């Protein structure tokens, strides 16, 4: 078939550019030490930042949730799929991040991707009366949400508050929405949220903050980037992911109660999908207990110590370590082929680090994306540091 030949040619072009992606089969629970395709590996590529994905208390809560609610929800939230577990989780989430919001209410979603699509398509009017201003390094879900909103979409340069100010000043839209990652997933740096919020309050704009990589890990109590910066405003719309530091799955949006009610009534990704299994919501209650309690603080302290160890120990000459203070620690190599060779060389040593290439990152900035977890030990990080320092010089 000519259609299949076209696809084969397209795949061949990806292969020539070292852009083919491969899946590996993990045969053990998510942890630093995993069995992958029959081989024992030390992994630095998951987003399980607090090491909760296989926590026994959360696993026990998941089992309890299955016994109590079964395995599936059976319908969308607005039909019959909204269980007591979902309601309790939303109440707890609103309380958890509520100190940084005004009249907070929360809404639980199956995935972070769906949450971001819902926020941008639900808040935007969809005509010339709305305008979205999106950070240039935003996650794909925010980019897609802006496109699906069917409204005007402008992109401002990375962390460029002055450029955004000029765009907002020039806009005549009655509904302005600024959207940004908090911790940028491929660079690991933090958005200038205090300055962005000040702009939004001055220009009467919503500030949508995708805290996928900050929730649980950033802030004294793990409440994320808003807590870290000490922000509070009715203009904030907060998106938190529950499949990364929280160790389970799904995501939530927290904002003023009127915003959440608007999403319930207008956001198609929420209205027209089956609710997540209630057992997940039940397990997340246990996860929140850990994140906000003494164990969560201990885990965050250990993670920060590992980040400091990484920054002190990595000695690169050709490659570039990004100035990140978070669990995401990229090493910029540049070319796709060299990046994948480096990832393969580490893998041969039993070290699993993701090689990230375009279109996930801009052309010419292919990188190794090392992610640290509170479940890693200092000796694990030391092993990767030594391997990288030697590999760059070989």
Describe the structure.
The chain is of the alpha/beta class and 394 residues long. The protein has two domains: 19-48 and 294-393, Aspartate Aminotransferase, domain 1; 56-291, Aspartate Aminotransferase, domain 2 (3-Layer(aba) Sandwich), CATH 3.40.640.10. The chain has helices at residues 2-16, 56-69, 77-81, 84-97, 112-123, 140-148, 161-170, 193-203, 225-229, 257-266, 268-271, 278-291, 294-313, 336-348, 378-393, and strands spanning 33-36, 39-43, 104-109, 130-135, 152-156, 175-181, 205-210, 236-241, 251-256, 320-321, 328-334, 351-352, 354-356, 366-371. It has a seven-stranded mixed β-sheet with strand order 3-9-8-7-6-4-5, with helices on both faces. Strands 10-11-14-13 form a four-stranded antiparallel β-sheet. A three-stranded mixed β-sheet has the order 1-2-12. Strand 6, helix 8 (193-203) and strand 7 form a beta-alpha-beta unit. Helix 2 (56-69) packs antiparallel against helix 12, helix 5 (112-123) packs parallel to helix 6 (140-148) and helix 13 packs parallel to helix 15 (378-393). The longest helix is centred in the C-terminal third of the chain and has 20 residues, at 294-313. The protein starts with a helix and ends with a helix.
Q: What's the quick description here?
A:
α5 packs across α10 (257-266). The chain has helices spanning 2-16, 56-69, 77-81, 84-97, 112-123, 140-148, 161-170, 193-203, 225-229, 257-266, 268-271, 278-291, 294-313, 336-348, 378-393, and strands at 33-36, 39-43, 104-109, 130-135, 152-156, 175-181, 205-210, 236-241, 251-256, 320-321, 328-334, 351-352, 354-356, 366-371.
